[in-house]
# Entry
Amino acid sequence: MTNLSSLSFYLPELFLIGIILLSIIIELIPGCRKYNYFVVLAGLISVAIMLSWSSTESVSIFMGMSVSDPFAIFFKWIFVIATFYIVLISRADNSLDKRLSGEFNILLLIVMFGLFLMVTANNLIMVYLSIEMVSIASYILAGMLKNDLKSNEASLKYVIFGAFASGLMLYGFSWLYGLSGSTDLHEISAALSGHMDQPFVIYMAILLVLVGIGYKISMVPFHYWTPDVYEGAPTPVTAYLSVAPKAAGIALLIRFFSSTFTTDISTTVSNIDWTTLVAVLSAITMTVGNLLALQQTNIKRLLAFSSIAHAGYMLMVIPVISVDARAAVMIYAVPYLFMNLGLFFMAIAIHNQTSSFEISKWKGLGSRAPLMAGIMVVLLLSLTGLPPTGGFIGKVYLFSVLIKFQQFFWLAVIGVINSVISLFYYFRIVKTMYFSSADDETVFKIHPLLYWSIISCVVPVLLLGIYWSPLINFVQHSISMF
Amino acid sequence: MNPTVLIALAILFLPLLSFVFQIFIGHRIGRPAHWVSLIFIGTVLAFSISILTNAYLLHGHHVLNESVEWFSTGDFTLRLGFNIDNVAAIMLVVVSLISFLVHVYSTEYLKGDPRYTRYFGYLGLFTFSMNGIVLADNLIMMYVFWELVGLSSYLLIGFWFEKHSAADAGMKAFLTNRVGDIGMFIGIMILFFMLGTVNIEELAYEVSIGMADGGLTLLTIAGILVFMGAVGKSAQFPLHIWLPDAMEGPTPVSALIHAATMVAAGVYMLIRIFSFLTPDALAVIAVIGGITAIMAAIIAITQNDIKRVLAYSTVSQLGYMVMAIGVGAYQAGFFHLTTHAMFKACLFLASGSVIHAMHHALHKNNDHDTDPQDMRNMGGLKSKMPITFLTMLVATLALSGVPFFSGFLSKDAILAGTVAYYHAHHGWTIFLPIAGFGAAIITAFYMFRLIFMTFFGEPADKKIHDSVHENPVPMTTPLIILAILSFATIFTLPGWNPIENHGWFTHLVSEGENFAGLDMHETTEGIHHAHNTAMTISLIVATLGIAFAFVVYYFKKFKADSLAAAANKLKLYDISFNKFYIDEIYNAVLYKPFLWWCNVFSKIDWDYYDQKFIDGWGWLTLKISDASGYSDYNWLDQKIVDGIAKLTNYFSRELKQTQTGVIQTYIMGGVFGLMIIMILFQSI
# Structure
């Protein structure tokens, strides 16, 4: 499709660019600065409206550089919701410098734009550019707290590790280009299917691509940056990183692995058995994530490792090349978004009051803030994957795919064992809230924005645990990829 | 979305909102909080009436039949949905009207109760659950709400839980209902496995196309099992024992739940599933209904507690309705449900009014021993409480089946049904008309006994009589409204002939259809033919009953006591007074033997099995375990069990070492990781 006619499929992105430019201009006019926040929120709503009007056709746009398909739109919804939440509550975080809030919002929107590109990319160049666009803006966001050494450190580590990973990925891309003579994902897929005589070369290319994306979703052994960056970065940024780029990484992984590295008849290209590779890495990822989380006393580090473990859960079904597997990941992503955000918001609330992220500061919340503590229990139940929560439904669908596809049955077993391990550290938080008395019986104060955001996070988590048909239907309609 | 769906959703969920409000916020506001409930339930009433009007104008089309998918597993999809046909539309109005009136009435009756707002919350919960039963389009959803009304009934019976008898009554109601509900659930499951659906219309359709022909016996069994739910909820013999005890709850609750609506839920459910009940199942239903009708009526004669008389009367009337369904008088059964709801609610609220007044009078005279509910302590209240008297008289006339009142029309139709049933089947079925007419004569008698004992004659205690006053407007208004609704003309509109039932009701409710073998055309014809016979006999028996009550209690030609003594020569009085000894029989046949067996088993279990056998093994085991315990603790527990935990912890701690915080190590980890993967997986 030509560039001009492609624009009609690009309305959400065009709106987003408009909002970014508008808020940069507003930021430059001294008297208008204070309206930036509302402009950005209104802008995000307009993007969401555009998104709901998006065509559900699957077409390739901009001469094959990008695509527009329901699969991408599904993930765009996740990004819009996550970004909206983060912009909304950025006001309530005391550690963020209020003078920089305009810049914060603009950078966040740029990351979101990068994520939009990432899930629609159909060309190696676009994939690389979008990943860099997300990464570079995220590096700055991680270092937003200029006077905080930890934040600076986080930013620097993120940059170095990011450069390392994207270097490897770029190397992999060059191999792919060398093998196929094209940068278009579908042409690469076709070309790879014909290279039966070069299995190791193709294997190397796949592995290097996996490194690049694995770094984004913090897959072991490219997860090292995660805890340090999550701990140092401002909490709203951490919350965002744990949800949106991770979802985008998973989306990109699905696009690469279940279309480019898969032939039309659902077998792997050139019989390269990357499925076992991903399955083993998924098992290692969740195990390492959960084991390391056991030791944490800092809520942000704990959630960092828990997010590594959840990346492992989502990776579980990628080796099963089927529509059901893809649907299961998408179903899991939705409750994951809400339950993770809810916990981070609570961490912000407690940090506002105590200036600490230690879990011991959660002591006695059960009596000091009964409603909030109750909601936290629901969210933690959901993260563990217990009923009646959305997290349970997500896991049911993940495991049912594995059990139906006998070959990776062992992975389901490891997944269940990991859920048991995770129960320990999630419920240590519950224990802290209910069974340890608080060091100081000060009244628990919470910013109303955080309060209502947390409540709005728990509603879908509970609702999806009881009535999940709408989500399943939505996912079934969003399954098709270009 | 269809606007009717929104209205239906509002009808269902507004009462729930009222419950949530009263429970969580109400107690902070106090008494004015009842306005929220009144407004919500009033809105529900308005919506229900709009739906009924809509149904009337639609001429037999379904007002609403919509459902959404709840979940699907494998081939089975469970859908939640509403099905509002004409029957449901009428039932909605009945439920919300009486609920609303009871709300109004309770603002006065419960004034000053420490849990005032909670009471209104429970009423909201009940109305929500009851509307759920009415709206449900499938048996599973109905079952869920069925249990919910059971819960709200339990909460309301035991509302004054400081009284032991109230707490026990709540428990008794709950447990007795459980017996019926288990049967109902098994019945639903049989229907599901037989016909593959739980949707009521689909079930009827499957039966109508002959899907159940091979298993008519099974369908009969399923029907009887589902009917067990109604036996429990509608207090039919032999599970009727909970309803009289349920009178421990506040009187407005008795009016709403234990007279007009919840106990009618069983009948409503039978009406819903009528089209696939087999003739055999219907025969069982008819007999149970007949037994209940006559037995409860006999018990009611000798009771002295004003509420208990009404409670047994309710059981008896519910027996009528169930019997009507059983003999195929579908329309008559539902008609009696509707009319009975109005006049029985009126009777209960009126009795509440009397009790309330008595209570205040006793309180004023510092008399705390006299029972305000015992009719022997009343008498001569006619002049003191004219509104209560007149409304109660109207409702009594309706219940006794006197022409120009609604009960005449509906009872008549049921009696015609039983006569027709006898004409069609002969033999033992003579029992049904006998039970019907017998109960009719007794009903007329005991209701006028109640009226005379309460309102006429000499006051039992002059001092108390002097301090009795009519209750304020919030209590009398509902009485007046319900009394007006007990006139026959209300139901025959637009026709004005009060003894011919051809009004909006017959226009809306069909004669019913049955796909399981009952010829509805023949049944309807039979009822039509039996109409005049039934009307004549029922007029005679009503007159007889009322006349006898006049003779005994008004003119006092015979002394009631000597009559009782005469009857007691054959132990008749005792049987009636002691409710056929059913509680005692259950005690002797069920509970006592059960406890005896429990004791026997406990003795065997403890004295022989436990003390000798187990302890013998225990001794042996002790010796072995001493030996094995040592190895177990030192090896299995300390090494393996703790070992796994320690190992997990160890790995965790070792892995923690990789998280050094030094970026160089991280990169190295990444590179080495990549290399290891490369080498390990290169063979693939």
The interface with chain B takes residues 156-157, 160-161, 164-165, 168, 200, 203-204, 207, 211, 220-222, 224-225, 227-228, 272-274, 276-277, 280-281, 288, 291-292, 294-295, 421, 467-469 of chain A (CB under 8 Å).
